[in-house]
């Protein structure tokens, strides 16, 4: 398996533009997490899905952020409109099951810069 | 206040030194404790996990949990330049084992 695949790896956009980040989970993994990482705030959980259903979106900072998982093979995180403070590295992670010893596998991340 | 607190460092040590990385937590429901390692411009990867209080050893790495103090540690013996990375602690509760709560990470540099 190629692991968790995120695209694009880098994104530079102007303030006010719509940004869409994409994630392809590891086949068979039923949990999918979106994280945001910055120097100031560390690794923050934004939202997570179980079997394509959003379970907890309490970490989504504002209504400008939305996430979908239309099927088991694909998820998107959308920011509309984008702002400079959204600049961060966004990670997608997936895992199989909710057992204590279940490991979360992270993608390489998308480095977003909003100018 | 965050549920998991971790000193961000940065921490710089000479090669061969013993490194101690620590996290404290406030949620007594946390039962499962993990350490992830994150190299520059990469995603975090699981390094070690432990369920109970006590020590768990894996090569040069030892994870230690003290539930009574809500304190966990990761020790690295004979540190190598290849250990230079950010180390994040993470924890799960028994009631919501699908979700991990992460510390902010400690950045370690091992100088040759």
Structural class of chain B: mainly beta
Q: Which of globular, elongated, flat, extended, rod-shaped describes the shape of chain B?
A: globular
- Structural Rg of chain B: 13 Å
Secondary structure category of chain A? mainly beta
- Rg estimate of chain A, integer Å: 13 Å
Low-confidence stretches of chain B: none
Distance between the termini of chain A: 36 Å
**In terms of quaternary structure, what is this?**
heterodimer
How many helices of chain B? The count is 0
Please describe the biggest sheet of chain A, giving its number of strands, its sense, and whether it closes into a barrel: 7 strands, mixed
Q: For the report, how would you describe the main beta sheet of chain B?
A: 6 strands, mixed
Unreliable sequence segments of chain A: none
The gross shape of chain A turns out to be globular
Q: Indicate the percent of residues in helices of chain B.
A: under 10%
Query: How much beta of chain B, percentage-wise?
Result: over 45%
**Kindly state the mean pLDDT of chain A as a whole number?**
94
Describe, in plain words, how this protein is organized in 3D.
Chain A has 115 residues and is mainly β. Chain A has no helices and 11 strands. In chain A, strands 2, 4, 5, 6, 9, 10 and 11 form a 7-stranded mixed sheet that branches. Chain A is globular. With 112 residues, chain B is an all-beta fold. Chain B contains no helices and 11 strands. In chain B, β7 and β8 form a beta hairpin. The termini of chain B are far apart. The model of chain B has no long low-confidence stretch (mean pLDDT 92). The interface between A and B is medium-sized, with 27 and 25 residues.
